[in-house]
Design brief:
The chain is an alpha+beta fold. It has a domain of 108 residues: Alpha-Beta Plaits, CATH 3.30.70. 31% of the residues lie in helices and 29% in strands. Strands 2-3-1-4 form a 4-stranded antiparallel β-sheet, with helices on one face. Strand 2 and strand 3 form a beta hairpin. The longest helix has 18 residues. The chain starts with 6 loop residues before the first helix and ends with a strand.
Length: 157
């Protein structure tokens, strides 16, 4: 009743079917503008090139001494005076746990910390703003350092 196919025809048919099936499940590469909802606003572009993501780590005080160090209100005052005027278009702040070992310390300190995340066009002016924020914090608190991590970012709003 059934006509037998030569083995080569069966093999070719099977390979073809598998290759077509494999193509059907391959996800398309994501487009940077696929989820963009804002268009034409320089501060919130639908698509941007030449932006960076900067993360700044601020120590607020020793973890086991919550009554000492920088208070939440003092942090918010710093944010309002030093950060927001420089980057009014948006930023993120996260509470994080951190460790820091200073130059003259035998063991790391466990710190209450804040992580500030800012995405912005990579210009000399914006990088200077970030450095001004770091300098203001060190001057205000006496800290030796504010860790900065900056990397290229694809941005879409």
């Amino acid at each position: 009743m059934f006509k037998e196919l030569p083995l080569t025809n069966l093999l070719v048919s099977t390979i073809f079917m598998l290759s077509v099936a494999g193509c059907a499940v391959q996800p398309a590469a994501p487009s940077i503008t696929a989820g963009a909802t804002l268009q034409g606003d320089a501060a919130h572009p639908g698509q941007a090139v030449g932006w960076v993501d900067t993360r700044l780590y601020f120590g607020l005080g020793l973890l086991d001494q919550p009554g000492q160090g920088v208070s939440e209100q003092s942090w918010r005052d710093f944010l309002d005076r030093e950060v927001t005027p420089r980057f009014p278009d948006g930023l993120s702040v996260l509470d994080v746990y951190g460790q820091w070992q200073g130059k003259q310390q035998a063991t790391p300190e466990r710190l209450r910390s804040k992580l500030l995340v800012i995405d912005y066009p990579d210009t000399a002016e914006n990088r200077a703003k970030v450095e001004a924020i770091r300098a203001a914090w060190k001057q205000r608190t006496g800290d030796q350092s504010v860790l900065r991590v900056t990397q290229a970012a694809e941005v879409s709003f």
